[in-house]
Specification:
The chain is of the alpha/beta class. The chain has 13 helices and nine strands.
Length: about 325
């Protein structure tokens, strides 16, 4: 029997495999403020379902927590926190930013969590979620970040460079901490967020700077978040797996696989079949994903995080369909 490592490597290389890898991940909004609690929740989830990879999912607030961003969980089924006031409100504050230490505060806490998960994961590879620098900018300054980027690009760049430096340092520490790669989430490669010209100017170079820091990884995953995606702008990113909401946003798995190198992950509608459908519908979507990709280069997964209320029977149906049992 192939190890999870070898199974995923064969999938990335688009070689035939005895079974389809499968992975689901979720937020832990009651646990993600404490390293030990998030590690325990993540490992318990893995022990229950034995996925082929672990995606370590912190709250989005952690990216700006050390600057003063707060968050409160209000029952959102996705697990997102309601963010408090953005900590940076003036351009002067933005330009005065300095790289955040990864030795203290929220970033050190997340690295501690990663250490615990890697130590407890056995032979299951672990990836750490990383948000794109434009998302971090929004968490720090809200819509003002977009205004400054458009009106005062030189001043914006000065602050943006400190964000990139912080997260390059964090990604390097993640790789040193034993992660198999990063799960790099971009919420801005979307025509709903900005123009293609803007993304090529601001998003792509910053994304590639962080991905370069993860270049030693063998399981780097790109998550293209949202709708009306600029899929063609990010399709050539240096990653081994690409994940997006193929059921809702498109492109299809078949089309996406023709555009990217490596593997594709998706096929399961997290708000449809997984949350509110039956086990047979989940099985059918996994079977369709296998059919679309010819059963090679495919990881059965949801298009984004698994909603917290998803029934366990539907999670187990996805696993059984992928593994042919």
């Amino acid at each position: 029997m192939l190890s999870k490592h070898d199974l995923l490597l064969a999938t990335i290389a688009r070689k035939p495999t005895p079974r389809t890898p499968v992975a689901l991940w979720r937020h832990w909004p009651a646990e993600d403020q404490v390293a030990e609690d998030l590690a325990l929740a993540t490992l318990d989830f893995q022990r229950r379902f034995d996925f082929d990879l672990i995606k370590l999912t912190p709250s989005q607030v952690f990216v700006a927590e050390d600057a003063g961003l707060t968050g409160v969980y209000d029952g959102n089924p996705e697990g997102d926190l309601v963010k408090g006031p953005r900590p940076i409100s003036t351009l002067e504050q933005w330009e005065a930013m300095r790289p955040t230490s990864i030795q203290t505060g929220a970033l050190a806490r997340q690295l501690r969590c990663l250490d615990l998960v890697v130590a407890g994961a056995g032979d299951t590879p672990v990836t750490q979620t990383i948000f794109d620098p434009l998302t971090v900018a929004s968490c720090l300054a809200g819509d003002q970040a977009m205004v400054w980027r458009r009106r005062y690009p030189d001043a914006f760049q000065r602050g943006f460079d400190t964000i990139i430096e912080t997260w390059r340092n964090f990604v390097s520490a993640v790789m040193d901490g034993g992660a198999a790669g990063i799960f790099f989430s971009t919420a801005n490669a979307s025509y709903r967020s900005m123009s293609e010209e803007e993304y090529l100017r601001w998003g792509r170079p910053a994304d590639l700077a962080l991905l370069d820091a993860a270049s030693s990884g063998w399981l780097n995953m790109l998550h293209v978040h949202g709708d009306d995606l600029m899929f063609q702008v990010v399709a050539d990113y240096p990653v081994q797996v690409v994940n997006w909401d193929d059921r809702r946003a498109g492109p299809s798995l078949r089309e996406g696989q023709s555009l990217v190198r490596g593997a594709v992950a998706g096929g399961i509608a997290q708000w449809g079949a997984l949350l509110s459908g039956g086990a047979d519908e989940v099985r059918a979507q996994v079977a369709d994903g296998i059919a679309q990709t010819g059963g090679v280069g495919y990881i059965a997964a949801a298009g984004c995080v698994t909603p917290i209320p998803v029934p366990e029977r539907n999670i187990r149906a996805a696993i059984a369909a992928a593994r042919g049992v």
